[in-house]
Amino acid sequence: MRSLxxxxxxxLALVLTLLMFGLPVADSLRLLGEGxxxxxxxxxxxxxxxxxxxxxxxxxxxxxxAGMYNIGGEGQLIVGAVGGAxxxxxxxxxxxxxxxxxxxxxxxxxAGALWSGFAGWLQVARGVPAVIxxxxxxxxxxxxxxxxxxxxxxxxxxxLPQTAPLPADTMLLKFxxxxxxxxxxxxxxxxxxxxxxxxxxxxxxxxLRLVGASSTAARANRIxxxxxxxxxxxxxxxxxxxxxxxEYTGITGMLGTGFPQGWGFLAIPVAxxxxxxxxxxxxxxxxxxxxxxxxxxxxxxxxxxxxxxxxIQAAAVLAVVALAPRAKPxxxxxxxx
Amino acid sequence: TGGSGSSSSPSxxxxxxxxxxxxxxxxxxxTPGPVSDAGWSAMAYDGLKAIQxxxxxxxxxxxxxxxxxxDAMRSYAQKGYDLIFGHGFEYNEPAxxxxxxxxxxxxxxxxxxxxxxxxxxxxxxxxxxFYLAGYTAGLATKSGKVxxxxxxxxxxxxxxxxxxxxxxxAAKPGITVIEVFTGSGQDIAKAKQATLGAISEGADFVIHxxxxxxxxxFDACKEKGVWAFGANLNQNDxxxxxxxxxxxxxxxxxxxxLAKSVKxxxxxxGIALMGMDQGAIDFVLNPALQDKLTPEVVTAxxxxxxxxxxxxxxxxxxxx
Amino acid sequence: MTPILRLxxxxxxxxxxxxxxxVSIEFAPNEVHAVLxxxxxxxxxxxxxxxxxxxxxxxxxxxxxxxxxxxxPFEARRRGxxxxxxxxxxxxxxxxxxxxxxANLRSAWQTHRPDRDAGSSLDxxxxxxxxxxxxxxxxxxxxxxxxxxxILKALSSDAEVVIFDEPTAVLTPDEVEDLFRVIRELKDRxxxxxxxAHKLSEVMAIxxxxxxxxxxxxxxxxxxxxxxxxxLATWMxxxxxxxxxxxxxxxxxxxxxxxxxxxxxxxxxxxxxxxxAIGKGEIFGIGGVDGNGQVELAEALAxxxxxxxxxxxxxGCDLEEANIAYIPQDRQSDGLALSMSIRDNxxxxxxxxxxxxxxxxxxxxxxxxxxxxxxxxxxxxxxSVRDPASSLSGGNQQKVVxxxxxDVVPELLVAVNPTRGLDVRATDYVHSQIVAAADAGAVVALxxxxxxxxxxxxxxxMFLSRGLxxxxxxxxxx
Amino acid sequence: xxxxxxxxxxxxxxALAAVGEVISxxxxxxxxxxxxxxxxxxxxxAYVGLTTGQPWLGLAAGIGVGIITSLLQAWFVLVRSAxxxxxxxxxxxxxxxxxxxxxxxxxxxxxxxxxxxxxxxFDGLDAVMLATPIIAVLAAASLRQTGWGLLTRASGExxxxxxxxxxxxxxLRLGAMTLGGALAGAAGAYLSVGIVGSFAENMTQGRGFVxxxxxxxxxxxxxxxxxxxxxxxxxxxxQFKLQAQGSGLIPFQLLLALPYLAALAVLVVGAKGTRGxxxxxxxxxxxx
Lengths: 337, 320, 478, 288
Ligand SMILES: Nc1ncnc2c1ncn2[C@@H]1O[C@H](COP(=O)(O)OP(=O)(O)OP(=O)(O)O)[C@@H](O)[C@H]1O
Ligand SMILES: Nc1ncnc2c1ncn2[C@@H]1O[C@H](COP(=O)(O)OP(=O)(O)OP(=O)(O)O)[C@@H](O)[C@H]1O
Ligand SMILES: [Mg+2]
Ligand SMILES: [Mg+2]
Known about the structure:
The structure holds 4 protein chains of 4 kinds. Chain B is α/β, with parallel strands linked by helices. Chain B has helices at about 40-55, 65-80, 90-100, 125-140, 155-170, 190-200, 215-225, 250-265, 295-310; strands at about 25-30, 60-65, 85, 105-110, 120-125, 145-150, 175-180, 205-210, 225-230, 245-250, 270-275, 280-285. Chain B has a 6-stranded parallel sheet with strand order 2-1-3-4-5-11, with helices on both faces. A 6-stranded mixed sheet of chain B has the order 7-6-8-9-10-12, with helices on both faces. Residues about 1-20 of chain B have low confidence and may be disordered. In chain C, the strands form 5 sheets. Chain C has a 6-stranded mixed sheet with strand order 6-7-8-3-9-10, sandwiched between helices. A 6-stranded mixed sheet of chain C has the order 15-18-19-13-20-21, sandwiched between helices. A 4-stranded antiparallel sheet of chain C has the order 2-1-4-5, with helices on one face. By secondary structure, chain C is an alpha/beta fold. By secondary structure, chain D is an all-alpha fold. Helices cover about 75% and strands about 0% of the residues of chain D. Chain D has 11 helices and no strands. The radius of gyration of chain D is 19 Å and the shape is globular. Classes of the chains: A mainly alpha, B alpha/beta, C alpha/beta, D mainly alpha. Chains in contact: A-B, A-C, A-D, B-D, C-D. The interface of C and D includes residues 51, 53 and 113 of C. The structure holds adenosine-5'-triphosphate (2 copies) and magnesium ion (MG) (2 copies).
């Protein structure tokens, strides 16, 4: 019932947007659908775009479930990619690609975990709410990226502010050279399963949910909620960092100031639409992936202009939050639907 | 099946290759900034429009910076585009890479040093225009200080600034050339602030590479009563009334000729240097403000222009 | 006596739980109207409906023949209905004076000065002999003082209807007497007072009329003169609860506490050197007025709060590893994670049980069986164990805490006001569980502000005053 | 002196927006959509200023857009109880898309360097520059010393307490959001009809986010936030002067990261006493 309403509202929001911009509705919808599912290119694009959203979305689930409002997915993703690029710069040519790639991903996770762990520590030890600190850290991360591609990681003095491109054998496995789809989607799906098992099937996962639901109750029951809070932030940051590493070694192959695509920000709607549940994230991540692939296609090939893509994405997000059951970490309904 | 794609062609519409049928010719343009920047990207967009009209091509364009470039190129190639322009040297390397996977699409970047059978480049020698602007500023400055305001700090911009500086020094040895970057080609307020900063340090001629933020530069010049140069497009008629001359790129013919060669199948990779001699670069004095420059200055500038055109004077440019 | 406030056929269900079942009830001006009922009978829900915090599923209500603004608390407040919440509505980060000012604001468009705007309430507090430091942060105040603030807020308004939802639960008998004086005064000024309390003695002392609810349904309304405690108890539960007397015995050594110092949340010296010993199987009562270090002492014993100096020994086991059961005084914030399922709340202790886990993993099936068993054994009234704990009434919430703590006999049981806000039957039940734990050999530290409770259960009782243990009396003989 | 006026002028957009954000956050609403609201204000102010030739009308229109944007946001946040951060993020996207699209429709796809008349200045000072500190003081005084302020702060701390006293949290937050939106709109408008008299796509360039950092930096106090904005403006001006003097001492990325680092540092060093509003970012929930 609710999902039907959501679908209807999404459709309406879309049609309204198109009408507002004076675009032919039927044609535009066709372009949208084609971009997402029209052919193997569309489907592969949908999956490729869903990949970072799934990983960052899972990251948000973990943190928010622990009661930590991590809004820094974007920063953690960026820092993850930078960490990965630093390892790549240090080891490129010294280590063969198939070995280097996992090292890059591991570095990305570590960098993301440290970045978010800092925010966790700030909240726990210094009383700085993560909502605030992670927002601030996002901007620091963006500048860190800018600085590192202008400075230490720049491929060559005087060249463009970018890192050297990764050789093909260091990139994640691709299933077809013309397609965008890469091995990252497999990593993301495995992550969904692991996070589900963790949250609902392990003692640590239970403690994490408990601390999020009531840190006072956790304290009164001698659960080290501060450690859990920091741990959840680190886990969350590790997933976001991994998203950065996967995007770097799966799609872009190098870093520049244009690297951040907002996946980290979009992780929040993805996680909320998914009901802060890892399996929900799987669905909402795919939905947003399709939406992005589709709207990109629409923006490219309709007469609306490329800026239209933002409008469509915004409309889709707003339609979702207008209808999605409200979710607030501390009051997340644990009850089965 | 990874890596086997080089022999298969995109499935959307069989690419017509170099010798496609009319009406079926598809051209895409990638720009580093919004095409509404009334500058670098806008100029390329005008070139694309010319292709649409003259060759009745289907055109499309998108903004794509560094890491987004490959993705955008791939998506056009997947859609069976025949020619993909990347407006800037940063598109050259991605073009080389993506072109391997899409042999039926031609990739061209504005500047860049690598080519392949289906990858070409043309480089706008805008440094020539900037040199003349610097030369003009050097002759006309009273304070002995001139300034350059940059948006994004990228090599192509730095190269034009070097030429401006060389021109200024040629005209007035020992001149101070101030250089300030704002980090954004869209932040008008910062551009104005940076310009005010340069003017407060004594600059009385200012050139910019700030694209959409250029109005901030002109505004500051107008406010403080100093002169500005336009860049990329002819900005002499800017409402500020502060632009004495512009160093311009005339991109239309270059884009059109290249597209024609792709369409009729005569395209063969390679790099073309597009300078004043091809009419691709110009330095246009503002007739309305001609009286602000002494006749001697105008004459000297024209002499230098002639030297550049004749090849007697080679304006420095960076390779990147 | 013409009623001023009428409810007709009001129903409210939470999923399968029927909180209110076609309740009709009338309140008159100039009366103190007590509402009685077991835990979960629907009292708070009914009050929340009147005050606009809960919108009923059906039914209607009128105040002075105008329809009640269901679901819009601010509107109800405007129309003259004030409520003292069972769970306080105070801004923790505000000073006491700011919180009182909130209640005294007449309009958003007036100027505000905390001292001036809180003035009348502070005066009232002084009249009552209640100590309220206006500049202290509310969150730093002991629960008892917070309760006073909550009451002062409601009193300072010129509301026609004032609802008190269990205001006496954390007050001392003296404080209760002061409150009742105020209530009588309000009544004399023609107000309608609705009072929820579990202690029948209190109800008999103050109420003019009494209404009893049972399982969401209206049972009876009667003038207080026409009923006695037995009658009320029968209406409430359908039977008269029995009572229990503690046995005294000599105990094997259990807990020994020496010169213990504990600091409070703001670093203040809350417990200042106490020493005592509790034997295995002994129930040791710790009484006293709220805010004298009880919570800090309890938390230190329960290993929730570090002690600043001194020692705590538990004979025969390491305190770190010991099975310590802790029933905190604030079940809503410290006892439960309200948004989590009842099952998850039971798991708060359960996830440590060896038989429910395998290494880092939880055993789903075993947990399911264990949960069922606890719900049955402790007679927790639940729809489904997957419902959130917030859906339980206060009493059943407490049962969840007790059940998971006393599932296996702990080495040490620390309970703070374990029957706060519970009805007679639930109180009796919790008492019997505490006694059973002691009988099975647990060391029991029972903190309570309720003298009767201490007298009924504790073998020995001491009083905590300003962080020091003072008096000493013997349980059964007291 | 001249420098001070200059710094002050360029600091106005972030300072004004920060005051609005303080009010909004004090009521419990974290407005991440500040950037978008400013951008909307900047565009409409430029458009109206250009077509009417009246910068004041432009400013008024910018404020109007700010209010409309905040009402839209309020519907999601207050009526639908949607997550504030998500809605704010969407507002930013929306503003980027709508202003970009409209700009291209109105001024051609290749854009134009617009020249819009600006608000008149006297000795480098204009009305908005003078008004900003006054607005900050008024905001601070109202938050402290009026019933509205007390209620608004309570809404940001513990909404239930406000409802219990007969005031609507929804209305209070709506009020705070509207004020915040109006100020953000004005801030954006000042960028396009106060400082430069022009518009370019995405010309706000992160100023909304800087303003959010200033709120934290200024510990949710309007005057402190404005002071922090002034400090930021000063550093930026210093940076440009240093660049112009030819010393590449400070990489400008560091300068750009400065407000965030400073805000973080302040929090790290002295956060224990001052927290943000307890209910910040939490949706309002009535009984289900
Ligand atoms: N002990 C366990 N071991 C393995 N998997 C488990 C375990 N417990 C739960 N799961 C799996 O986790 C998922 C969620 O289960 P659960 O019953 O906890 O959901 P829920 O309580 O409805 O979720 P929520 O808490 O989000 O409302 C299910 O797919 C379930 O199979
Ligand atoms: N928000 C809610 N969601 C689900 N069920 C609820 C909710 N609030 C109350 N209930 C249920 O409604 C019934 C009545 O609860 P209520 O709080 O009114 O009881 P009460 O008489 O005040 O009990 P107590 O004396 O324990 O406070 C209980 O069964 C309770 O579990
Ligand atoms: Mg669960
Ligand atoms: Mg109750």
